[in-house]
From TrEMBL:
<dbReference type="InterPro" id="IPR010940">
    <property type="entry name" value="Mg_prot_MeTrfase_C"/>
</dbReference>
<keyword id="KW-0808">Transferase</keyword>
<dbReference type="GO" id="GO:0032259">
    <property type="term" value="P:methylation"/>
</dbReference>
<dbReference type="InterPro" id="IPR029063">
    <property type="entry name" value="SAM-dependent_MTases_sf"/>
</dbReference>
<keyword id="KW-0949">S-adenosyl-L-methionine</keyword>
<dbReference type="InterPro" id="IPR007848">
    <property type="entry name" value="Small_mtfrase_dom"/>
</dbReference>
<dbReference type="Pfam" id="PF05175">
    <property type="entry name" value="MTS"/>
</dbReference>
<dbReference type="GO" id="GO:0046406">
    <property type="term" value="F:magnesium protoporphyrin IX methyltransferase activity"/>
</dbReference>
<dbReference type="Pfam" id="PF07109">
    <property type="entry name" value="Mg-por_mtran_C"/>
</dbReference>
<feature type="domain" description="Magnesium-protoporphyrin IX methyltransferase C-terminal">
    <location>
        <begin position="128"/>
        <end position="216"/>
    </location>
</feature>
<dbReference type="InterPro" id="IPR010251">
    <property type="entry name" value="Mg_prot_MeTrfase"/>
</dbReference>
<dbReference type="GO" id="GO:0015995">
    <property type="term" value="P:chlorophyll biosynthetic process"/>
</dbReference>
<feature type="domain" description="Methyltransferase small">
    <location>
        <begin position="43"/>
        <end position="127"/>
    </location>
</feature>
<keyword id="KW-0489">Methyltransferase</keyword>
<protein>
    <recommendedName>
        <fullName>Magnesium protoporphyrin IX methyltransferase</fullName>
        <ecNumber>2.1.1.11</ecNumber>
    </recommendedName>
</protein>
Length: 218
């Protein structure tokens, strides 16, 4: 499946099918036990990626690539960054903008756009948390090359190649449904480091959440 087709599926899912689900998941609202593990895993992964960035981001331009409901954007703004928060879901961007504290609002620009749009400009850092997990190796490599060309540092996550995720991937291929969450495409962490260099930041596995973090430089 091409990058454009996968992107369209992701947009449909987050902007129409599951907006309310993600609004609840990214808040303090009660959720199911399964979604609670996803929430905890995402919180841990957010801290993992932030730990690879400078504590003081004053004056730095940061692209939050696939910002969703804005949790990462908020933390980046707290560190003093000027954040361009991009997502292909206008509905999630509305939630993110509504949640942003007034005293930080001037540090964050929300834009409905493809994170690979060169018109977004150059950045000091790019953060792409769980926004590249749906793409095949070829599309992932192209996306990383694009992001690396526009930033000094890129921190991002992929779905690691594990027996559980491989089983989920195969099930998604066999039983596609239009309302199903886009299937994550597992990748071997060692292959990403070989192809792009950089640093392995480690894996977060909490219940039904599993993701692997990396850092690459231009």
């Amino acid at each position: 499946m091409s990058y454009e087709l996968t992107r369209a599926r992701v947009e449909t899912y987050f902007d129409r099918t599951a907006t309310r689900t993600w609004e609840a998941l990214t808040s303090d609202a009660p959720v199911s036990r399964i979604r609670e593990t996803v929430r905890k895993g995402r919180d841990e992964m957010r801290e993992t990626l932030l730990s690879a960035l400078p504590t003081d981001l004053s004056g730095a331009r940061v692209l939050d690539a696939g910002c969703g409901a804005g949790q990462m954007s908020l933390e980046l703004a707290k560190r003093g960054a000027q954040v361009t928060a991009v997502d292909i879901s206008p509905e999630l961007l509305k939630i993110a903008a509504r949640r942003m504290p007034e005293h930080l609002a001037d540090r964050v620009e929300f834009r409905a756009s493809d994170m690979l749009d060169a018109g977004l400009g150059q950045f000091d850092h790019v953060v792409a948390m769980d926004s590249l997990i749906y793409y095949t190796q070829g599309d992932l490599d192209l996306a990383l090359s694009s992001l690396k060309s526009r930033a000094d540092q890129v921190v991002f996550t992929v779905a690691p190649r594990t027996p559980l995720l491989m089983a989920m991937w195969q099930a998604g291929k066999l039983f596609p449904r239009s309302d199903r969450s886009p299937v994550m495409v597992p990748h071997a962490p060692g292959g990403i480091v070989r192809r792009h260099g950089g640093r392995d930041l480690g894996r977060v596995s909490v219940g039904f959440y599993i993701s692997h973090a990396f850092e690459v430089a231009a």
